[in-house]
Design goal:
Blueprint (H helix, E strand, L loop, with lengths): L1 H13 L16 H5 L13 H4 L71 H13 L10 H9 L4 E2 L9 E8 L2 E6 L6 E5 L6 H4 L1 H4 L3 E12 L5 E7 L15 E5 L5 E3 L17 E13 L2 E13 L2 E9 L21 E7 L2 E6 L10
Antiparallel strand pairs: 1-4, 2-3, 3-13, 4-12, 5-9, 5-13, 6-7, 6-12, 7-8, 9-10, 10-11
Subcellular location: Membrane
Keywords: Membrane, Transmembrane, Transmembrane helix
Main location: membrane
């Protein structure tokens, strides 16, 4: 408030003597206040210059006569040529979207990797421990079998090995019922565990098509007798040794598996697998096989091509097969050990209460070999 009083006082003092020509003291008003009364600073007469330029009849600013140039495009230079348009033998550039294609003629869409199974999932801790275990225990180097061992494997005279330590406490039945069959049963407390054969069914050193110049197929099957509930299941496939004994086939390096609780297939995939077949049923026979053959590249012998397939009740279907090296999600661990360069063993995974029979050789119901 003191500041405004001071300024007001200065204006009052300055108006007592408006005729001073020079600014002599702080109490006088600034020079701009005095100059407003001088003649040379009075407002000019008439409107500002900009108003005078708005005369639309001024010849210097009048628009050119006639319509704008764009109205003259009806001249002959812009008319279409006479007659119909030239004939075009090319097809239309776009597909007629009003025509609905017959989708039954299209191939089925590729299976997509999943993060989780809709039924049962192992823990992240179990998977992490298995990865560390695999890093400490590399896959065995293939070695040639004796002639007798090779003959036994081809005939299906194969011995199964039970999982070690605490993993076998809930196994109620584990016995060989014939040279080519085994009976296995577990209780509801059975954790994830895997049964592996003692010898391979595929010996890379003697069975590779690059050596024999003929395809090689391996196969075995199970007959499901009992699956107690939704938290029980069986998985079948193949794996290289050594393999983490508390993990199911298909979850880690050099292994494939088809899991009966959700019907999904796994190829070195510790995640949720890919949708494949329906879940296994009681009193059903389910088999899994692998075929190794030479893939020609440019008319010359190239690499081994590997495919896998599943049978139901001894029947095969092209929908139940796939190429092992097909494009998959980048998070899986690759196909090393599965392309004919490594030994592969039959593998059966279990959890919960199940009962089933394992069949090799002539005891299987599939006769496609």
């Amino acid at each position: 408030m003191g500041l405004f009083k001071s300024l007001k006082g200065k204006v009052d003092v300055g108006t007592d003597n408006p005729s001073h020509d020079q600014y002599t003291s702080p109490s006088d008003p600034p020079p701009s206040h005095r100059r407003r009364e001088k003649e040379e600073y009075t407002n000019p007469t008439g409107p500002p210059p900009s108003h005078r330029n708005q005369n639309k009849h001024d010849d210097g600013f009048a628009p050119p006569p006639g319509p704008p140039p764009t109205h003259h495009r009806q001249d002959d230079d812009f008319l279409p040529p006479p007659g119909p348009p030239p004939k075009n033998d090319n097809p239309p550039p776009y597909h007629d979207w009003t025509v609905i294609p017959d989708t039954s003629l299209l191939p089925p869409p590729p299976a997509l990797p999943q993060d989780y199974s809709p039924t049962n999932n192992a823990s992240y801790d179990s998977a992490e421990r298995a990865h560390e275990w695999c890093a400490r225990n590399p896959v065995y180097t293939p070695s040639p079998p004796s002639h007798e061992i090779h003959l036994l494997a081809n005939a299906g005279h194969i011995t199964l090995e039970s999982p070690p330590g605490p993993l076998k406490k809930s196994i109620s039945t584990f016995r060989q019922t014939s040279p080519t069959t085994w009976l296995i049963a577990t209780s509801k407390h059975q954790p994830d565990a895997i049964f592996l054969s003692s010898i391979p069914m595929y010996f890379a050193c003697v069975d590779s098509p690059l050596l024999t110049e003929r395809p090689k197929t391996i196969y075995f099957e199970i007959h499901v007798r009992r699956i107690q509930n939704d938290t029980s299941g069986i998985a079948i496939g193949y794996a290289a040794k050594p393999y983490p004994p508390w993990r199911l086939p298909g979850w880690h390096r050099a292994s494939i598996g088809v899991h009966g609780d959700d019907g999904r297939r796994f190829v070195n995939d510790p995640w949720g697998g890919q949708e494949f077949v329906s879940a296994f049923r009681e009193n059903e026979s389910v088999g899994v096989g692998m075929k190794f053959e030479v893939e020609e590249v440019g008319g010359a012998r190239g690499k081994v091509k590997t495919s896998a397939f599943v049978t139901r009740e001894g029947r095969s279907d092209e929908r139940w097969s796939w190429d092992i090296d097909e494009e998959r999600d980048e998070r899986v661990e690759g196909v090393d050990g599965l392309m004919g360069e490594g030994d592969l063993y039959p593998a059966i995974g279990v959890f919960g209460a199940v009962e089933f029979e394992v069949k090799f050789g002539d005891s299987v119901s599939w006769r496609g070999r």
